[in-house]
Amino acid sequence: MKTxxxxxxxxxxxLCGACQxxxxxxxxxxxxxxxxxxxxxxxxxxxxVYVSETALNNPQPVNNATVEMRVNGTLVETVDKVTPxxxxxxxxxxENPAETKNTxxxxxxxxxTTRFSEGDVVRIDVYSNGRHAWAExxxxxxxxxxxxxxxxxxxPTNQYIELTEITFADFTINLPDISPENDxxxxxxxxxxxxxxxVWADYGYYYASENTDSICEALRxxxxxxxxxxxxxxxxxxxxxxxxxxxxxxxxxxxxxxxxYEYGNDPILSEGEMTKSLTEDGDTDILISDIKNKxxxxxxxxxxxxxAEIQISVGQPFGNVFYPETLYVGGGLERLSDEYLKMSGxxxxxxxxxxxxxxxxxxxxxxxxxxxxxxxxxxxMAMLSGAMKIPSNVNGGSGNICITTNTVLExxxxxxxxxxxxxxxxxxxxx
Length: 431
Fold this sequence. Notes:
The chain has five helices and 23 strands. It is mostly beta strands. Strands 2, 3, 4, 9, 14, 15, 16, 17, 20 and 22 form a ten-stranded mixed beta sheet that branches. A four-stranded antiparallel beta sheet has the order 6-5-10-11, with no helix packed on it. It starts with a strand and ends in a 7-residue tail after the last strand.
């Protein structure tokens, strides 16, 4: 049977304190309870369980616990030490891709290294200072043969109170249902992306009507990019100007970034949402919270034992990459050809991974509850109707053990894509 833990809003406590007959609230039962939280993934070599102790203000990590893992009733692993470090991808400026290195783990993190598969019954037991809390979940079945494709398109988007076109990858996902039973799903999107910025820096120029070759060779010995250009001056004389340029390249790269994609009015992903209503005066009703499916969970309500077609739009951090960049030219670069100057600019790379996740029922209702708690005006709503009840599947404590079976589809969105460029010769500076 599911147990429930309760969140209490600060506004509700203040409201109690404002009553004429004061009541001394007893919050002693809110402290010292083991809280276990974990998002476990099938087929992963490493999973983490986070153990803390509830307190009135902030939960405190527990670093002296013993964590046991059972799969299908068999004890497979016992961990009694907190994890000192976790391998994370760390971005360093100018490196592509990010470097993987050991970084300090959060306190209360325990590493599990036993793999399990769909259909396995996984039980986590935690012992600490005479307390025992546990949870048991069955790993959901895998989604079989999902398919997806995408096209790039510009969408009008409000940015800084201005309507701007942003390039999106519009995905159409074909998702077969797992079984005739009630099944629960989530779609997550991640990206590896980066760009290379190339800039020609002007290191001056030489008029070299004579001895052009020797001047060019001497400059090349200094590591310069040398470009001789022949021209006729205002007096009709044939001249040669030798441009001295230096090529600067800056690289930016970021890996495994979670993307908050858009889903418009897709009936599957937007089911159960609530939008703010307007009063008779046209004002927003503050008593209605604007609830969005922030955690992107859904059921097979519309496609039980069949297949769903889901539309999502994944944004990217480059803005409208199809809109030409303007390269400003001035000073001594005015005689260089546009073709040469257009070597400056940005080159983009981006891959998107869609994680099509089969999740447990408890995880579905837990994330649905977080959609409400993290919505606008939740504190106002809680003050009037009470705090949200958060589902928990932990016995003898609080928290959630969630298991996900996912299928990952990967797409290359940009592969060394050079943004189109135009030249502005009227500017006084060159970027």
